[in-house]
Amino acid sequence: MTKKTQLYPLDDVIDEVARVDVDPAFDLFRRLDRAEIPSTLGEVFGAPKTLLLVPAAGDDPLAEAWAAFAKGWAKRGDVEIAVSDPSKPLPTDRSVWVLGSGNSARRAFAETLARADAGLREDVIVFGRTELPRAAHSFAFTARHPANAELAIGWIGASHAAALPGLARKLPHYGKYSYLGFQGDEPTNVAKGRWDAAGSPLARVVAESTLARATLPTRMPLARLAPVFDPARLQAHVDWLADDAREGRGVGTQGLADSAVYIAKAFRTAGLEPGAAGGGWFQSFEVAGGPDGQPAKLKNVVAVLKGSDPKLAAHPVVLGAHYDHLGKGWPDARKGHEGKIHNGADDNASGVAVLLELAQLLASTHKPKRSIVFVAFSGEEWGRKGSMHYAASVKAEATKPFAMINIDSVGRLGEKKLTILGSGSATEWRHIAMGVGFTTGVESECVAEGPAGSDQVSFHEIGVPAVQVFSGLHGDYHRSTDTAEKVDIDGLVKAATFVRESAVYLSERERPMTSTLGAGKAKPAVATKGRRVSLGTMPDFAYTGEGVRIGGVTPGSPAATAGLAKGDILLSIDGTELVDLRGFTDVLRAKAPGDVITIRFKRGDELREAKATLKAR
Q1: Average model confidence (pLDDT) for the chain?
Q2: Looking at domain 533-616, which CATH architecture does it have?
Q3: What is the pTM of this model?
């Protein structure tokens, strides 16, 4: 007799049934009951009839703005507008939009929001474990109609009227979600999700019990596809490069020299060919004025995947990432971090890890028409010395690269979109990014100018369209706290996916890129080095309006002490108008530690002013 595997041990069997659940994992092919289907915005929008309930004048400070909002939406199908009246029940023959945080009809959402641990509480909007300050944020919640489970209802609220036009445009594009959170006037989505199923007619509680609901054992799929990129290998590269033994990969250190050898071995193992002049892996050169004032020897590591089309191969696609960092703080030590090892896990062990993983994959799977050159640059932190040297060596028309993608600081992506800096260098970059998003699901946002002056700028200077793939600034930038355990490996997989799709497309493209570099349309990068002071704000690079929008504030910084917050738009400093990030940087470059500055800024619709005492950078 064959021994049967016992899935559920009987040691803890109770003598009474407490609960019965049939098909709790939804494995059966069946028509779901409405109670098993979470409400979504798409259901509210898709109803044949809709009622827009605007708040009464005394219920919501934005009552007039919501009335205008409703008139705009009333142009869509069979829509009725009414003022919310707590004495009247919701109609049962149509979906309902409840407009305004203070709308009296919000009570219809109480049961759903309580079950999901969501709603409005004091000064915050709650989405389960996520909390957003109500100031400068807006939201959308959905629920089942309390009197007709076949319908869904929606509730939209905002703290400021400027967000309403953007909500009107954007909400129809988020139909699959049950709840949404937005920030600022634009507004920008910062939270989204679907409720768990509220219940099922196939579940019955038989008796009160202290036992937790039973869970089914995890089942493995019948087949698993191998991942395109190897997260473990990406992690291993980051760990090795950002280890203390590499001494922060500073100029002149053994750690930097060892890193060059490590990268060359990885290129060789991947199956690439040496790409430096003379048939070697290293492009060596010397630069005056090193850390000790003496000339320093640097080397770029160069490899190539040769193209099959002789006409196209001479103008390759360059994939680059700098492998140097700041050692113990040279040449850009931040106050309080002098003399400490700067591991540079995000900046830029993350980019090198992606470069090496791309080399491993492309060399084994892709036969390009154009050559693809892989370059690990040295000296980026020292004013782009490595990429400038490499660009000078290929700037002749016979060898000039077709396009370049710089992978720099891609290790802190989280739930954000990738940022593509320098996309204004050719008209195609924006379309390439959109196409990659459609085919891979990796979302990105293009920024025409490239802040921070990373290695793509060296290619702009010789007329080559180039972008930087970037995951965003953070409080550990150029500090000893940029360590390996903080790197988001799933984000590296997304970055690698984006670059691979882009590189494969470019390596097959025969038509030249439509460069804007000679037309004065792509401005040079905004330099961030050379400043002596720090305000403690991180810019929102994707913002294109007036002033500089704050993407984040460093805790304990002058900006935090002054009360500045994410989403605020800086308009002027000491009376000097801030047209863009370049102007902001120029103003701070003229300041010294201890200077007190007056900042005029916008929060929502409100103009404010604050004073901040600048700290040493």
Answers
A1: 89
A2: Roll (2.30)
A3: 0.61
